[in-house]
Amino acid sequence: MDDLTLHEDPRSGNCYKIRLTAALLGKPLACKQYDIMQGETRTPEFLRDVNANGRIPVLQIGDRFLPESNAACWYLAEGSPLIPGEAFDRADMLRWMFFEQYNHEPNIATLRFWLQFVGEANLSPFQESQIMAKRAGGEDALAVMDEHLAGRDWFVGDSVTLADIALYAYTHVCEAGGFRLQDYPAICRWLIRVSGLPGYVRMS
Ligand SMILES: N[C@@H](CCC(=O)N[C@@H](CS)C(=O)NCC(=O)O)C(=O)O
């Protein structure tokens, strides 16, 4: 089997998804760290050798490079119970992973990044003008999740899948972006369920 190396910044939830998937599956994963605040994913070498899109995470599989967190999770989990065997459930899992990338991460992860790492005082006028819309978009996403999880344990079927891992990564740290988890009781119960999984690892 090819060696697996995660090119990551440990503060990133997108990178954490991949580490959590590997840990739940018991797959060994080496890590190479970058500081995105210092532009280390924008160097000519990184753009040429690792990801022309200038972003982590990138999962290196032997001498091949796979960017995009959810694609990397899929690669690791192929053939495992983290991907449902039944066609509808598998597509439904992808539905939540696309939701995560379109409705959840661009609002919740971005606000966390701006408020926790960039700092409110350092935001550009454009970023400042986006805060309210990002807050509203993030709250909408959390409300959809909370309603879906009321009365069920996992996003798809009756066991944990990549949908749960993808959505867990930034949800469990969303308070750093100013969101209030206590407003979402079904999410709170699900977060405890995920953190109790055998093999679970913390974000950092
Ligand atoms: N859709 C991508 C998003 C990747 C992404 O936004 N990465 C951020 C960190 S979470 C990054 O590398 N930022 C550094 C930069 O843009 O220079 C994924 O899911 O992997």
UniProtKB/TrEMBL annotation:
Organism (species): Novosphingobium mangrovi (ex Huang et al. 2023)
Name this polypeptide is given: Glutathione S-transferase family protein
Domain GST C-terminal intervals: 86-204
CDD domains in the cross-refs: GST_N_4
InterPro entries: Glutathione-S-Trfase_C-like (IPR010987), Glutathione-S-Trfase_C_sf (IPR036282), Glutathione_S-Trfase (IPR040079), Glutathione_S-Trfase_N (IPR004045), GST_C (IPR004046), Thioredoxin-like_sf (IPR036249)
PANTHER family given in the database record: GLUTATHIONE S-TRANSFERASE-RELATED, HYPOTHETICAL GLUTATHIONE S-TRANSFERASE LIKE PROTEIN
Ranges of residues in domain GST N-terminal: 2-84
Entry's family note: Belongs to the GST superfamily.
